[in-house]
Amino acid sequence: MIYVLFIIGFILLIKGADFLVEGASSIAKSYNIPELTIGLTIISFGTSMPELIVNILASFDGSSELAIGNVLGSNIANVLLILGVTAMIRPLPIQKSIYFTEIPISLVAILLMGFLANADLFVEVKGLTLSRIDGIILLIFFAIFMIYIYVVSQQKDSKDSGNGAEAPIAILPKSRSIFYISVGIAALFIGGKWVVSGAFEIALLFGLSETFIGLTVVAVGTSLPELVTSAIAARKGQADMAVGNVIGSNIFNIFWILGLSATIRPLPFYVISNLDILMVVFSSTLMVFAVIIGKRPVIGRFAGLVFVLTYIAYLSYLVMRG
Fold first, then answer.
1. Which of 88, 162, 251, 312 measures 20 to 30 Å from 306, CA to CA?
2. pLDDT tens string 276-305
3. pLDDT for res 43
4. Which domains does the chain have, with CATH numbers?
């Protein structure tokens, strides 16, 4: 039954995020909020909701290894697996702002998180910890990032208004929108609870660490919304949406999700997780190299294959690590 609820939990997480995004986007659109702004905020929040719910519940349950492993594993899967698969479906042209601004911000996020976890500046207990103050610092950086998104979206909205490039957002009756939001939140909560409980039981049953489960099964499962969103965007030729969704999700995961999780409850940090932090840095750096070594700024099918093979090699290392 644990395995059944574990799988159903992932399905509820994915569908819950879909319902929440559809309902919230409809309400936002009914108040004439530009679609680009909706995409950069509500949709980004929506695709990161599974990670958020899993981490909040893991924090309350004291499963710190699962919380940190989920975020690091999701960020690695987002770049190597999701962008890799997406690029193999269709090569992804990359705008300069992506590798001059968004990727550097994502690198700052993971390096800041690594510094705070290892520096042990604001705690008096023994051992490395992401303290509540560390979490608040990450949330402050998240607020700065949201201000940046708002400013950029306003500039782009004024330039791109009326170009019809974005897929239209359906305006639903408000009662249906509220129903979708309510069902989405309920599905996210129940699904997250079952995933966290299932992951903990599976780890105990097979003698695996919570970190391993978080970095692999839970990370891939909670990244499925980003995978579906990016794959569909790539098939439609919307490369900016595909890449922006992945990079934006990585920034959200560190600043928002890990920041909120640590603020709720300090998260003990284990030195072995530094290798996973280095893997996040390596995957982002690999993405930059894939763009700059070619004749034009694009992540091609061969680079996508390299990303996926690198991810498989990383999973093999995790299995050996246990």
1. 251
2. 999 999 998 998 888 887 677 788 889 999
3. 67
4. 2-321 (1.20.1420.30)
Region for 52 from its dihedrals, namely left if φ exceeds 0, alpha if ψ lies in -120 to 50, beta otherwise: alpha
299 forms beta bridges with: 92
Q: What share of the chain is helix, strand, coil (3-state, %, to 5)?
A: 80, 0, 15
CB 245 within 8 A of CB 233: yes
**Tokens linked to 216:** 């692999």
DSSP string, 280-296: HHHHHHHHHHHHHSSSS
Give the start-end residues of each E strand in 15-143.
92-93, 129-130
Do residues 90 and 235 touch, judged by C-beta distance below 8 A?
A: yes
Entry pTM = 0.81
- Tell me the Cα Rg of the chain: 19
- 268, 128 contact by CB (below 8 A): yes
> Taking the mean position of all CA atoms in its chain, how far away is CA 191?
17
Both tokens assigned to 289: 């190299």
